[in-house]
């Protein structure tokens, strides 16, 4: 389930999306991916790298926009099949590390292994 403490906007997703779809692997259709290496963000008051991902569920009833801030890691996507069985997000805020989230793919042919400091979720 969408059981996260610090993802901004997660409360709206929990409220609006049916419980059986409140798993990241249900949102496997990648609609759009944008990466900006020198974005200005009010949280950082400086330049940071930002990635925006727009996903929908298989039936395309719900679309989610995730914005990831201050990212590092690996990204390799199969352009034909997209994310296939989806992805997962782990909160790792007790690790002592600067990065609070781990975003990764379940697929063996996709190397999607990112760490970021902040996530913002929106329902489109």
Global geometry: globular
- Number of DSSP strands? 8
Residues in helix, %: under 10%
Low-pLDDT stretches are none
Output the radius of gyration: 14 Å
Across the major sheet, the strand order is 1-2-3-8
Q: State the major sheet.
A: 4 strands, antiparallel
* Average pLDDT score: 82
Q: Structural class per helix/strand content?
A: mainly beta
Name the beta content range: over 45%
How are the elements arranged and paired?
Blueprint: H1 10-16, E1 29-41, E2 46-56, E3 63-69, E4 72-76, E5 87-91, E6 101-105, E7 111-116, E8 118-123
Antiparallel strand pairs: 1-2, 2-3, 3-8, 4-7, 5-6, 6-7
Provide a descriptive summary of the structure in words.
- The protein is mainly β.
- Helices cover 6% and strands 47% of the residues.
- It is built from 1 helix and 8 strands; from the N terminus they run αββββββββ.
- A 4-stranded antiparallel sheet has the order 1-2-3-8.
- The two termini are 19 Å apart.
- The mean pLDDT is 82.
